[in-house]
Model the fold of this input.
Amino acid sequence: MKHEHNAFENQIFHHFRERAKAINKAIELLVEHNYTVIDMESQIITKETIKQQIKPTITPTRYSKRNTE
Done:
């Protein structure tokens, strides 16, 4: 059987998928050791929230006020 390649299967996408797996593994390691991680979408990841689909979000009010002036 011949494997049919898709447009999204190449070395570049493979590299980014591997990097994403490494980042997720690092986040899991930090959370396992009682660290709190805030991701790029301002979601808080802790031991209690790591398995939830929807994570708590922080709102940086001070940051928002600084950027609107």
In short: The chain has a mean pLDDT of 80. The helical segments are 11-32, 61-68. The radius of gyration is 18 Å. The longest strand covers residues 37-38.
